[in-house]
Task: inverse folding
């Protein structure tokens, strides 16, 4: 009872039958805004390109009422690209949110496990060794992404095996991740200098992370991995709250810490690997999106859904900027993400310090 | 007590060795009596926290086993175990911005299904836990804004909300001033007398241990060297052996329990 | 987070450490000798000696004086500088995963080198020297200032510095990335500089400024040792031990900038050494900076020199650049050491 005698519930919640969730109005509002913003920017992006369409035409076309050329442009050319961007944004943001909460570290990202370096090595190997054959066709559509996935897998397995031998105490796992990443990054450098400049240049493009020429073949694998992740994460997500209190309290309240961490990190690795294979490394999204949603919602950890929405927005928006700022040159989305990501991170720093009196 | 002891929490020949060093616990065998408050005391490095953590399944014993109701606790599904056994470690960390309500409600996790994050019973039980710890007014305050004593009470409220019949506490009163120490220990005592919880706590302060517990176990160098009522254990002889401390023990006129007046350090140490 | 990666190290007593220091010095001399002798054209030790004494045949003279001696010197000095920079940055950020590049130094140097290639048409590494150093200094300054601003009234706390460094590095790298994407001729030059290929002739006189910067940086760093020890105990304890945190931070970061800026100017943007060398040395002699700093110079120098030498012979007749060897041979070696030490301790 409060001082005035009215009963105020401890926690606002939403209940439907046996299903309930805590109602956090601010978090819900922020997530909803993020989704709406993503929708808006996507529609905008679908309309912008060599042939400009107004948003109402875009929506009409999406609903099936466009003419033949509008349908071609929106549905066949641009939609798969935008959808791939959304999917990659979702995958990376969720991967980042999981890693940051599980590792209890604001700078944690799946890259620390060598995933991205491994994927890069695989992709660059095929691009440089395959020569001009890898610029299009089977090698580009299937060869490069598969090699990237294999590289990512190899790196992850290496980290797991070596960490098994060095133990999980202290910074050992991080050092192993750094060592494995360094090795694969070295391999990338080696491929880059051994190849003729034309192939090296193409490999460099891949390394920057981009949505150029991405279409349905890139979209479906990411979408599938998101689906798998969703199925696994829905029952497990609430354990992330326990992780925040430290391994001891988590165990004391009945969370099987080791098993859960393995599953969570595994999902994170899967999402990152598939995304890297499809669009190249876009590391900053995994780092940025969770912080954005956490600070905007005022929660103690990044909500997975909210982070996903932010991630999708960042990728689509960055791609739009990348495509248009130096038109007709199409910059890769990854470069723009890093350029806005950097100052964003700085702003984050400054605003956080002002809030908490140190 | 009936002739057949009711089994609850038992450490059976538990040994713990970290890395390649000396054993932290050597074949410790102890049966905690249900419904009692047991205090574990001993000098730094004697293995008190190690024993408690092993009993709370935060550590896997190198040898031996910890049993609850006769079953090895490591063999039970951890969520199920968490409904019967809870442990509050030293200096737990709370993430920035966490509110008291959110913290306390974590204690309900072992009783909830994943799709029911604010179960019907949660409101009542969390409310009750906050009331018992005097934290109702601070329910929506941030844990990092609280004073040391309030923070500790919030963590205990979480343990209360977990509704376990056995609760282990690792140094619940360290860093608290005297008044708050009493608050916390009185609270723990009420959990024992009113809610019938079995309490095992590691304490540094011997007089407090004597005042608030039914049984004291003294560890030294990984082994139990004294085990009995406060009157039996808190004696100059035991203090000299366990702590290398020359001390006078008087009877506290208010509580009728032993009270330690430290004298001098025996033997050359520093 | 404490700095130990292995307790107080394998060697605990001062005499043992002194002996090891001498041993390492001797090992360095051997490495240098090997570095002189080995390569696409092996020279016998007597031929080396003849050249050093002032004579020797013209071909050997050309190889040694124009190529091998300079490149050996560059490798050793660069490696020493990176290792010491690593020690200092790890001490200031109290983070054993910190790398001298954390201050944005490597990213800044790389960006300016890219600009030099793209807009000024410079292609020789010696020509990049001032660009690299300017970029390094600029980036480090921005990161340090940002760290202080973001840290509020208090001195730039380690965590803030790390975050600021990561952010600025990312932005600078992105800008470099864009330029490289737009100009593949720039990429063609840059991709060799960035892996630290030390092959070819070197005019040491042109590289002299870098040696000067590194020299100054080393002097500052070695004198900074006791401050680093105090810092490792935490900012508050360091203050109570009488350190002026603000001033210490500036001194330390200046040293890091001079050292890693100079190293990048000399050797390209090779990584790994600054991060790993301090760890290896800590395994041997523990975290006390009195020993950590001098040992790191030797170990760092030997690492890079060994990498360069290996790179010259591993895929004859071609050469594998230093940066690639450090990554592809050094990283697995480091991982093996991690596994070994764990086993030994367990």
Result:
């Amino acid at each position: 009872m409060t001082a005035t005698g009215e009963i105020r519930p401890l926690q606002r919640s939403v209940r439907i039958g046996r299903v309930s969730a805590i109602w956090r109005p601010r978090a819900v509002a922020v997530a909803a805004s993020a989704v709406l913003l993503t929708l808006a920017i996507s529609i905008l992006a679908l309309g912008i390109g060599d042939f400009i369409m107004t948003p109402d035409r875009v929506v009409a076309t999406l609903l099936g009422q466009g003419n033949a050329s509008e349908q071609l442009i929106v549905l066949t050319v641009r939609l798969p690209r935008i959808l791939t961007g959304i999917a990659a944004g979702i995958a990376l943001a969720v991967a980042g949110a999981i890693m940051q909460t599980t590792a209890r570290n604001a700078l944690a990202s799946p890259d620390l496990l060598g995933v991205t370096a491994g994927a890069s090595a695989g992709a660059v190997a095929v691009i440089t060794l395959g020569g001009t054959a890898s610029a299009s066709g089977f090698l580009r559509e299937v060869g490069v992404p598969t090699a990237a996935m294999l590289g990512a897998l190899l790196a992850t397995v290496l980290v797991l095996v070596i960490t098994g031998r060095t133990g999980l105490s202290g910074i050992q796992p991080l050092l192993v991740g750094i060592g494995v990443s360094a090795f694969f990054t070295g391999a990338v450098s080696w491929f880059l200098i051994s190849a003729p400049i034309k192939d090296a240049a193409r490999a460099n493009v891949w390394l920057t992370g981009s949505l150029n020429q991405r279409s349905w073949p890139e979209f479906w694998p990411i979408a599938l991995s998101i689906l798998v992740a969703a199925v696994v994460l829905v029952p497990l997500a609430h354990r992330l709250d326990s992780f925040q209190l430290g391994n001891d309290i988590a165990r004391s309240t009945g969370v099987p810490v080791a098993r859960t961490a393995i599953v969570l990190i595994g999902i994170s690795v899967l999402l990152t690997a598939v995304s890297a294979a499809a669009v190249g490394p876009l590391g900053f999204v995994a780092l940025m999106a969770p912080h954005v949603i956490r600070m905007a919602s005022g929660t103690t950890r990044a909500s997975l859904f909210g982070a996903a929405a932010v991630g999708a927005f960042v990728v689509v928006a960055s791609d739009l900027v990348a495509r248009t700022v130096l038109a007709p040159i199409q910059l890769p989305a990854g470069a723009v993400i890093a350029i806005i990501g950097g100052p964003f991170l700085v702003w984050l720093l400054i605003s956080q310090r002002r809030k908490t009196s140190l | 007590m009936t002739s057949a002891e009711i089994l609850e929490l038992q450490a059976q020949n538990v040994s713990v060795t970290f890395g390649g060093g000396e054993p932290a616990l050597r074949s410790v065998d102890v049966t905690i009596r249900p419904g009692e408050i047991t205090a574990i005391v001993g000098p730094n490095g004697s293995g008190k926290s190690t024993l408690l953590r092993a009993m709370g399944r935060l550590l896997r014993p190198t040898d031996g086993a910890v049993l609850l109701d006769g079953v090895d606790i490591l063999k039970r599904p951890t969520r199920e175990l968490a409904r019967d056994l809870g442990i509050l470690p030293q200096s737990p960390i709370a993430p920035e911005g966490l509110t008291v309500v959110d913290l306390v409600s974590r204690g309900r996790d072992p009783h909830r299904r994943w799709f029911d994050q604010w179960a019907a019973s949660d409101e009542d039980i969390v409310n009750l836990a906050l009331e018992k710890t005097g934290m109702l007014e601070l329910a929506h305050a941030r844990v990092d804004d609280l004073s040391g004593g309030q923070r500790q009470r919030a963590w205990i409220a979480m343990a209360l909300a977990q509704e376990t019949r056995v609760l282990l506490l690792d140094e619940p009163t360290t860093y608290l001033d005297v008044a708050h120490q009493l608050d916390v220990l009185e609270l723990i005592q009420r959990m024992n007398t009113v809610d019938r919880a079995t309490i095992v706590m590691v304490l540094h302060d011997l007089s407090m241990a004597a005042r608030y517990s039914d049984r004291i176990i003294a560890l030294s160098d990984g082994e139990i060297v004294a085990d009995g009522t406060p009157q039996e254990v808190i004696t100059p002889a035991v203090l000299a052996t366990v702590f290398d401390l020359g001390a006078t023990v008087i009877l506290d006129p208010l509580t009728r329990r032993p009270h330690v007046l430290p004298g001098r350090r025996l033997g050359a140490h520093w | 987070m404490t700095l130990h990666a292995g307790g107080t190290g394998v060697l605990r007593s001062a005499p043992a450490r002194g002996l090891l220091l001498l041993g390492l010095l001797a090992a360095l001399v051997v490495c240098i000798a090997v570095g002189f002798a080995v390569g696409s054209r092996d020279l016998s030790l007597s031929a080396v000696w003849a050249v050093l004494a002032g004579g020797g045949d013209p071909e050997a003279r050309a190889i040694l004086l124009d190529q091998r001696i300079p490149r050996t010197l560059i490798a050793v000095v660069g490696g020493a500088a990176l290792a010491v920079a690593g020690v200092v940055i790890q001490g200031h950020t109290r983070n054993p995963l910190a790398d001298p590049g954390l201050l944005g130094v490597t990213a800044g140097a790389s960006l300016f080198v890219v600009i030099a290639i793209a807009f000024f048409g410079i292609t020789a590494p010696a020509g990049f020297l001032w660009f690299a150093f300017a970029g390094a200094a600029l980036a480090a300054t921005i990161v340090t200032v940002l760290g202080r601003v973001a840290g509020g009234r208090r001195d730039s706390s380690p965590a803030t510095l790390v975050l600021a460094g990561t952010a600025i590095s990312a932005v600078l790298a992105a800008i470099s990335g864009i330029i490289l994407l737009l100009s593949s001729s720039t990429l063609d030059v840059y991709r060799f500089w960035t892996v630290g290929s030390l092959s070819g002739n070197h005019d040491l006189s042109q590289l002299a400024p870098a040696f000067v910067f590194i020299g100054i940086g080393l002097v500052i760093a070695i004198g900074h040792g006791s401050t680093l020890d105090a810092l490792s105990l935490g900012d508050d304890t360091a203050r109570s031990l009488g350190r002026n945190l603000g001033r210490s931070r500036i001194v330390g970061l200046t040293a890091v900038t001079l050292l890693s800026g100079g190293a990048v100017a000399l050797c390209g943007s090779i990584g790994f050494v600054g991060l790993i060398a301090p760890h290896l040395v800590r395994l041997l002699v523990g975290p006390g900076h009195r020993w950590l700093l001098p040992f790191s110079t030797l170990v760092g120098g030997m690492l890079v020199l060994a990498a360069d030498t290996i790179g010259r012979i591993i895929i004859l007749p071609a050469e594998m650049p230093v940066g690639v060897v450090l990554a592809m041979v050094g990283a697995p070696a480091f991982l093996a050491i991690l596994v070994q030490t764990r086993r030994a301790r367990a």
